[in-house]
Amino acid sequence: MSEAERRRAYRHGRLAEALCRLTLRLKGYRVLASDFRVPVGEIDIVARRGRTLAIVEVKARASLAAAAEAITPRQQRRIARAAEAYLALHPAAAGLALRFDVMLVRRWRLPRHVRSAWRLE
């Protein structure tokens, strides 16, 4: 992948995340964090709605199927470890129900929000 393609993909991903944050707000979620990074992993969006803390992974691809397939078990484990770090840094959120969501994005379409896309084992 060339440097120009890499920059274009990065910008597309950032726009997809912004669209997902807006969509979540319109659904009644409060976005608590965006692009949360720790050495063990990263979280695209942390949002709260009622007593639920949603850890949201955003995937932007040419098709929804390709976006869904891009979330590997290894990536799920990294996101779960990042969620543990988030909870350690924000003890007030520890009493909330934790849920892992995915928002799938493709061009010229609204994001598809998949709630409880996976669970911790």
From N to C, what is the helix and strand string?
HEEEHHEE
CATH A-level architecture: 3-Layer(aba) Sandwich
Task: Name the shape in a single word.
Answer: globular
Tally of individual domains: 1
**What fold name goes in the CATH topology slot?**
Trna Endonuclease, Chain: A, domain 1
Which secondary-structure class do the elements indicate? alpha+beta
Please report the total strand number as a whole number.
Answer: 5
CA distance, first residue to last residue: 35 Å
* Biggest β-sheet description: 5 strands, mixed
Query: What low-confidence regions span 5 or more consecutive residues with pLDDT below 50?
Result: none
Protein described:
A hairpin with a 6-residue loop joins strand 4 and strand 5 (112-118). 39% of the residues lie in helices and 36% in strands. It has 121 residues and is an alpha+beta fold.
How does the SSE layout of this entry go?
Blueprint: H1 3-26, E1 30-38, E2 41-49, E3 52-60, H2 64-69, H3 73-89, E4 97-105, E5 112-118
Parallel strand pairs: 3-4
Antiparallel strand pairs: 1-2, 2-3, 4-5
Short description:
The protein is of the alpha+beta class and 121 residues long. It has helices at residues 3-26, 64-69, 73-89, and strands spanning 30-38, 41-49, 52-60, 97-105, 112-118.
Question: Which descriptors apply to this entry?
Answer:
Trna Endonuclease, Chain: A, domain 1, globular, 3 helices, alpha+beta, five-stranded mixed beta sheet, 121 residues, 5 strands
